[in-house]
User: Which sequence fits this backbone?
């Protein structure tokens, strides 16, 4: 974005944000809300995906049955700032379905605080993690060729999420599903990471799906989460 030689103050005014927000975008520390991105792109006579290809779709449907989504070759290609911005903008709902999900706590800055802040804004948060005490943890670990590591990571996530379980608006459950697609939803956008057999989760591809772009694909993924959530068991709250 800095290659466009635009005056930061004028861009901030056009996007409807303060200059600190624009500076944060340029440094890659945060991502804009869709409305701000569109205003900024209009001011620069380009499209949002030209400025922020990490968070806006770059494809157009070619025919009936195709969908416009952004695809990352690996989940680890998603910048930490994109994850932070993804969850930080949520005001209605955050849904997370993972096997272990330790990368959220280790690689996404202030992830726990981000969830707490979203809950304080009224967002309903559902966190669904793999049960570390079931045989499916071992089976999936074998699929990834990391049996002991995966079980340990599940236990680590269990303890971290359990520490958040007393936050109003945040519900936690554990599941024993042997196979499924991890999902990360924030309001009207979701990231899905279908696992490649024999590969670590971080090496599997990731797709960014927006409800307004492809409602059917969105609904199919959201229904998957609902099925997993409904058959999972609740994690007891800590403390009194």
Assistant:
């Amino acid at each position: 974005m800095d290659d466009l030689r635009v005056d930061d103050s004028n861009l901030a005014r056009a996007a409807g944000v303060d200059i600190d927000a624009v500076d944060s975008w340029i440094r890659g520390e945060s991502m804009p809300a869709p409305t701000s991105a569109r205003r900024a792109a209009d001011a620069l006579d380009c499209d949002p995906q030209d400025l922020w290809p990490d968070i806006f779709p770059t494809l157009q449907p070619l025919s009936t049955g195709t969908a416009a989504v952004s695809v990352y070759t690996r989940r680890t290609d998603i910048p930490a700032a994109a994850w932070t911005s993804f969850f930080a903008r949520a005001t209605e709902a955050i849904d997370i379905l993972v096997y272990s999900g330790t990368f959220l706590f280790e690689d996404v800055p202030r992830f726990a605080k981000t969830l707490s802040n979203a809950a304080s804004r009224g967002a309903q948060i559902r966190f669904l993690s793999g049960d570390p005490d079931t045989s499916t943890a071992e089976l999936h670990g074998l699929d990834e060729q990391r049996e002991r590591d995966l079980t340990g990571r599940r236990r680590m996530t269990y303890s971290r999420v359990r520490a958040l379980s007393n936050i109003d608006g945040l519900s936690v459950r554990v599941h024993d599903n042997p196979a499924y697609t991890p999902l990360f939803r924030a309001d009207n956008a979701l990231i899905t990471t279908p696992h490649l057999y024999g590969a670590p989760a971080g090496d599997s591809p990731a797709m960014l799906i927006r409800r307004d772009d492809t409602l059917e694909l969105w609904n199919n993924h959201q229904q998957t989460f609902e099925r997993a959530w409904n058959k999972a068991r609740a994690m007891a709250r800590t403390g009194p």
Remarks:
- DSSP finds ten helices and eight strands in the chain.
